[in-house]
Inverse folding.
């Protein structure tokens, strides 16, 4: 956690949801800084020690901050200050959908003391939303993206790290999905991810020497994510004209 990270609680479907809000450095000194978008980051399996403070999830949030996104990392049911019990991805999906909708409502941010005087909150309903997840979080994230498509409110992009292919049933994902996997992943073998990606003609970005938790390779995740947005259209440039 750093000075740009704020812990909040919102009302969820089965009770309180605890979340970390990670803000770009620029907002610390300039409340008028134009935000690029919103990023929702889902953590690994709760029954295996996964929390919003997981190092991979935190690295993903910081990477989005560097790109100008406001990142939200919720705790799944039964973790930390979030109410409820683990629901095998069913309740977790409903919670992520609830959070995604909360993120897109200007009044959600207006009531927060740390963001009340920052201009970006008024435009969250039109900002792009990126969905990302690590391991179990990638499984829930894939279904969230499909649900948002069905609702006519699609995410800008999906980022999956340590994809849960072969371990849980993933939803079909968009062709531009960013898949990052460790060469030596012992929890979700690379071959399972390749077998899942092959019929969908998805590109898998393999980090040589990386295990499931990307020990000593976290910077590779950050570099891949930030690099994926380089050269992409940036709505902020148009809004400043």
């Amino acid at each position: 956690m750093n000075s740009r990270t704020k812990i909040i609680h919102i009302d969820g479907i089965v009770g309180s949801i605890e979340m970390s809000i990670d803000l770009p450095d620029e907002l610390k000194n300039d409340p008028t800084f134009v935000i690029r978008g919103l990023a929702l980051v889902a953590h690994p399996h709760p029954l295996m020690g996964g929390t919003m403070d997981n190092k991979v999830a935190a690295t993903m949030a910081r990477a989005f901050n560097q790109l100008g996104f406001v990142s939200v990392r919720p705790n799944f049911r039964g973790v930390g200050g979030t109410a409820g019990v683990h629901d095998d991805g069913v309740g977790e999906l409903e919670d992520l959908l609830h959070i995604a909708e909360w993120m897109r409502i200007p009044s959600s941010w207006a009531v927060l003391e740390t963001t009340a005087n920052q201009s970006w909150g008024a435009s969250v309903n039109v900002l792009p939303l990126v969905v990302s997840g690590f391991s179990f979080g990638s499984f829930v994230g894939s279904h969230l993206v499909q649900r948002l498509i069905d609702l006519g409110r699609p995410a800008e992009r999906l980022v999956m790290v340590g994809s849960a292919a072969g371990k849980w049933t993933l939803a079909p994902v968009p062709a531009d999905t960013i898949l990052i996997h460790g060469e030596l992943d012992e929890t979700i073998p690379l071959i399972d991810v390749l077998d899942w990606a092959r019929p969908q003609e998805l590109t898998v970005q393999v980090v040589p020497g990386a295990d499931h938790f990307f020990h000593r390779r976290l910077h590779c995740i950050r570099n891949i994510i930030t690099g994926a947005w380089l050269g992409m259209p940036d709505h902020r440039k148009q809004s400043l004209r």
